[in-house]
Amino acid sequence: MMGDPLDLLALEDELSAAERETRDRVRALVDEHVRPHVARWFADGVFPLDLVPHLAEAGLLGMHLHGHGCAGRSAVEYGLAMAELEAGDSGIRTFVSVQGSLAMSAIAKHGSTVQQERWLPAMATGDAIGCFALTEPAAGSDPASMTTTATRVGDEWVLSGRKRWIGLASVADVAVVWARASDPADETAAGAGRVRGFLVPTSTPGFVATPIEPKLSLRASLQCDVVLDDVRLPADAILPHHPGLAGPFACLAEARYGIAWGAAGAARDCLDVALRHAGERVQFGRPLAAFQLTQAKLVDMALEVSAAQLLALRIGRLKDAGRLEPHQVSAAKLANVRSAIDVARTARTVLGGDGITLEHSPMRHAANLESVRTYEGTDEVHTLILGRHLTGHQAFR
């Protein structure tokens, strides 16, 4: 009996029953709550906050974290969920990634027990939303050049600076803000101006988040400019563990992992749409799928999708085994997003003129993936990470 024609390599056989259940459950959620509405969200530039309870109920917020109400699912299950969410829209996967892989991960990895108990249960249920404020107007790929400061004044920290492209900041309840910390009474890491993380309730005076508009990509999502104008925090607002850029980089690795899976999901959705359209659209007396040039496009896309899925699954297995290395995450993020953009653009050509409408997903995916290609490390950054691994030479500066 013929199986799924999109599963060229029978990858279904590589998944456990639990992994298939997670995938199918998230796919059903996307079919019910995302697909019927996402074109309008994208057209109107709206992030659907009423979707958050559904994501929380499905256990998707911090789903790969353990304890504090988090689902504690495997890396592969998390990846499969990200693929299904991004098959719906990159903006929806971005929400789950910012909430879980960045903000919640930062608190879980670097926070105190009190901080974890204060925020993680509420974030897992969607009752609190978080954001992750690392990038600045002049410090994107080079976070070491950040200028945001945190100065110890008596029993308080005072934060000043600007951040840019901060997902969810305008709707967040808490921001994980990275700043250069200085404590006149401390000559150790904080006193030396080392990068530290701080938990900033967004209701704190001096914290202002403004959505960036207009955008041509990730329109069903929120990215913001953030101003920190002498934001005063208690002494215990600092994340106590892992000072330095290793702190945010550990969170970025989690987000990049999810992106590799998400991009594969977006690509598969584009192929699915193109294949169905080619079978239904009749020209010159035959369906488009019967023409050699169309078949060549479909085959090229199917090969790219299969390779992306294999790569995502491989790094997922490595991550579950505790063996995943940063350069491997870079390889998957770089390769899969590149492939997904190519698949989305090719799928649009199969759709002809109808492909530019929001009735079909490929052009929306292509636009979104331009943002995904840029955030959590540009092509250039990941290329240099891989170049360093191959040659042993640092070429960033």
Automatic annotation (TrEMBL):
Enzyme's top EC category: oxidoreductase
E.C. number(s) listed in UniProt: 1.3.8.6
Annotated ranges, domain Acyl-CoA dehydrogenase/oxidase C-terminal: 251-390
Name of a matching Pfam family: Acyl-CoA_dh_1
The UniProt record lists the keyword Ribosomal protein: no
Organism domain of life: Bacteria
Family: Belongs to the acyl-CoA dehydrogenase family.
Protein's name in the database: glutaryl-CoA dehydrogenase (ETF)
Source organism (scientific name): Krasilnikoviella flava
Organism taxonomic ancestry: Bacteria, Bacillati, Actinomycetota, Actinomycetes, Micrococcales
